[in-house]
């Protein structure tokens, strides 16, 4: 379903040299549709609101985590689109970015406190 958003949002056309911005624009559109319209219409409170509010409360933290992941891929896997398509590589990248995120929460406790719920922190990581 996110493939449809890539076609509709066209952020890869608008930001061809910025994969982080391009990806975040697509995720923002998908989050709005799936969380606000789909989950929001069926849920009152709970994770529906938390997921929606995460983008507003996380400032540039999500951008930082995503940029770290892109930099890691460039350094350790040859760049975007050049990493081997294996589960081991996916696990490596996901583990590294999540560890970075948890380290940032430890280094900056106010960021951890700002992301007020476990489901909100989980959605950012």
| Alpha plus pi helix count | 8
Beta-strand content estimate: under 5%
Main β-sheet, in a few words?
none
Helix fraction, binned, reads over 70%
Helix and strand run = HHHHHHHH
Q: How many structurally independent domains? A: 1
Tell me the radius of gyration.
15 Å
The tally of beta strands, per DSSP, is 0
Give the termini distance in whole angstroms: 21 Å
How would you sum up this structure in a few lines?
This protein is mainly α and 125 residues long.
Textual characterization of the structure:
By secondary structure, the protein is mainly alpha-helical. The chain has one domain. The chain is 79% helix and 0% strand. It contains 8 helices and no strands. The protein has helices at 2-9, 11-14, 19-42, 46-57, 61-77, 87-107, 109-114, 118-124. Helix 1 (2-9) packs across helix 3, helix 3 runs antiparallel to helix 4 (46-57) and helix 4 (46-57) packs across helix 8. It is globular and about 35 Å long. The protein starts with a helix and ends with a helix. 10% of the residues are buried. The model has no long low-confidence stretch (mean pLDDT 77).
What is this structure's SSE topology?
Elements: H1 2-9, H2 11-14, H3 19-42, H4 46-57, H5 61-77, H6 87-107, H7 109-114, H8 118-124
Helix pairs in contact: 1-3, 3-4, 3-5, 4-8, 5-6
């Amino acid at each position: 379903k996110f493939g449809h958003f890539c076609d509709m949002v066209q952020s890869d056309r608008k930001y061809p040299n910025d994969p982080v911005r391009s990806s975040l624009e697509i995720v923002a559109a998908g989050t709005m549709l799936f969380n606000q319209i789909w989950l929001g219409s069926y849920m009152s409170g709970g994770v529906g609101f938390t997921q929606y509010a995460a983008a507003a409360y996380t400032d540039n933290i999500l951008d930082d985590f995503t940029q770290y992941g892109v930099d890691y891929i460039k350094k350790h896997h040859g760049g975007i689109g050049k990493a081997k398509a294996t589960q081991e590589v996916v696990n490596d990248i996901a583990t590294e970015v999540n560890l970075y995120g948890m380290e940032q929460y430890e280094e900056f406790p106010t960021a951890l406190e700002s992301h007020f719920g476990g489901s909100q922190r989980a959605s950012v990581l």
